[in-house]
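Pipeline run #58 for the internal structure catalog. This entry was flagged by the ingest filter as a single-chain record with no existing model, so it goes straight to prediction. Upstream metadata was stripped on purpose; only the residue string is passed forward. Reviewer on rotation: M.T. Logging verbosity set to normal.
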Amino acid sequence: MTATGTTLVTGATGTTGCRTAARLTAAGHRVKAASRRATPVPGAEPVRFDWYDPATHGAALDGVDRLYLVPPVGDSDPAAVMLPFLRQARAAGVRRAVLLSSSAIPEGGPAVGVVHQALPGLFDEWAVLRPSWFMQNFTGAHAHADSIRESGTLLTATGDGRVGFVDADDIAAVAVRALTDDRAPNADPVLTGPEALSYDEIAAVMTEVSGRPVVHRRLSHDQLCAHLAAQVPPEFAAMLAGMDRAIARGAEDRTTDAVQRLTGRPPHGFREVAEREWAHGR
């Protein structure tokens, strides 16, 4: 790894942002930890940052030469706020940007896919990380984890579809390499764990790890869409339900060697992560 300047980590209190900030500071890199409330992050400089408040953007970018970008949560059109910020970042001297996207969203696709498409034209050094679904969805602050704790159920429209779930720690490890290696990846790797699992199989592992019965309740696409629409905007609910339907049709039934190739070690398995994190609710 090369000695770096300062990295602005957006979403620094979130699932991948906090892990990326921690790994960067542990390796001796300077970090500005961005969040809406400028929440303190060990070893980093906290800075107030809100995607929807341009008045926070200039101070956050001051002295920064690289970015870790977590799109605003629940926004079906993140490009509307992200692209003006990225143009401002380029003008301010940022030279490398690493964007968190999704294995389910291709370049030029909906939502963050638009930002993915624009990134290479904005920065000479870039990466778009496209992780599969997070293993932490079943152990941390996520609707699936809450449902497991509250009722012992997983609600999806995925049917028998399988997913190469990935550990957020592995995503962060790749992000740090993409941010600090001498050469930027200039690529959009799909990140997965070592195996593709169905939600029935996830429920079976969580039954053993949690010590209580966990069942996968299969919903139709329309049932899931209605369920989600009670919690998030309708457009975002429809997009999420559509992703479940794609899983049911086999879109995420794959694994890749990207974590091994980019970090030099194999990705963590689901049981290992669930046992590590369930009791702590991480």
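catalog note: Residues 131 and 191 are 4 Å apart (CA to CA).
catalog note: The chain is about 40% helix and 15% strand.
status: ready for reviewer M.T.
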